[in-house]
Amino acid sequence: MHLTSLWNFNKEQLQAYINRALELKKESKGGLRHTTLQGKTIALVFEKPSTRTRVSFEAAMYGMGGQVIYLPGRDTQLARNEPLKDMARVMSGYVDGMVIRTYGQEIVDELSQYATVPVINALTDLHHPCQILSDIMTVIEKKGPIEDVHVSWVGDGNNMANSWIEAASIMEFALTLACPEGYDPDPEILKRAQDKAVKPITVVRDPNRAVATADVINVDVWASMGHEGQEEERLQVFQPYQVNTTLLSKAKNDTIVLHCLPAHRDEEITDEVLEGRQCVAFEQAENKLHIHKAILEHHLRN
Predict the structure, then answer these.
(1) What long-range pairs does 276-281 form, CB within 8 A, spacing at least 24?
(2) Taking Cα atoms as reference points, which of 58, 127, 47, 130 lies closest to residue 84?
(3) Could you tell me if 172 and 144 are in contact, meaning their C-beta atoms sit under 8 angstroms apart?
(4) In what order do the strands lie in the sheet with 174-178?
(5) Distance (Å, whole) CA 230 – CA 184
(6) Confidence band (pLDDT; 50, 70, 90) for 38?
(7) Going by fewer Cβ within 10 Å, which terminus of the chain is more open, N or C?
(8) Is pLDDT at 226 greater than 80 in this prediction?
(9) At what angle do helices 52-63 and 281-301 cross, to 10 degrees?
(10) Bridge partners of 178?
(11) How many whole angstroms separate alpha carbon 289 and alpha carbon 55?
């Protein structure tokens, strides 16, 4: 089974990833190591550069006894327009799974259609499912059952926002997104999620309104890979959405702040907030290792 977006999973399946990641983290802290992926090999096909995602997937695989082949997009035949269906079938004969980080969701979808080994989406412009699973793991660690938590997203309605919307509809928690006009989440994903959701999923313009009842405030950079040339425009548009001490003062005293990193300090989040007591960004980053272990273990062993 592939992990191309969260839509393909139900609440129990997503909770199972997180429960296993929490278990693996606890065991790792206690010095216990697993070798359940010994003899397995994955290919990391990364058309977009990465630090945390690459290292955490590699560390997860090596830590469980497996092997990794890292393939930057420019070094594969993808850069020379090899058909994706050909690559999927050839790679399936070499490795036990493919982790891909790329631009178009259609690339991941086509690979998964033809691959006979699991394909795991490590980021596209539309979805970022693995990141959201590790973020929810962090929320559960800090705030308890996700159904009891109100999550707020402040900033661009990007791939992270889309996957938070999917997660809210599946895992039954309230979600408010504060996005500037013209930078909303994907409308099809939003409608599908709102039609299915048990708790409200709402898009507002005012970040103060979004954080007022939030248990979790989530923020990302204003200009990601693929937004080259838009940086100045985005700096102007998103300035009212900066997560700073003034905005944070509108939230509850025990509200936590997430940032998937890397952060542009004093742009989307101030240095003071990122280093403050309510920010858990570095624990959030560590949890990528444990959720990736859980994902690889599940998909490569099944």
Answers:
(1) 276/245, 276/248, 278/248, 278/254, 280/138, 280/142, 280/256, 281/257
(2) 47
(3) no
(4) 201-204, 174-178, 150-154, 216-219, 256-259
(5) 16
(6) very high
(7) C
(8) no
(9) 50
(10) 154, 204
(11) 8
